[in-house]
Amino acid sequence: MKQICQKNDQKVRCGILAKKLLAEKIGTVIPECISEGKDFYKRTLAECFVKNLSLSAYLVRKGYAFAYRKYSTKFVEDEDYARANNLGMWSMKFEYPWDYRKNN
Predict the structure, then answer these.
(1) Cβ atoms within 10 Å of 96's Cβ, excluding its own
(2) What is the pTM of this model?
């Protein structure tokens, strides 16, 4: 949420933009989440859907989330699409979220 990106020499609150995009997509619908197990830290991993649309794939395809290729290739096509079309954060200067979290 706190991540800042840069576009045309202006600071952009890209974390907030991602949140707004997700909130608009969900609207008043209650997402259905499917557990996919636990991560190294024993946190639940899940993919959530609204009207059978993966919210993860949606955010990655819009350029406001990333395929975490270190662990999965699930959203690589969506990320490649966003990058090729300069969408979302791909139109800005940014740190990958996992690097941002590690450095901040």
Answers:
(1) 12
(2) 0.89
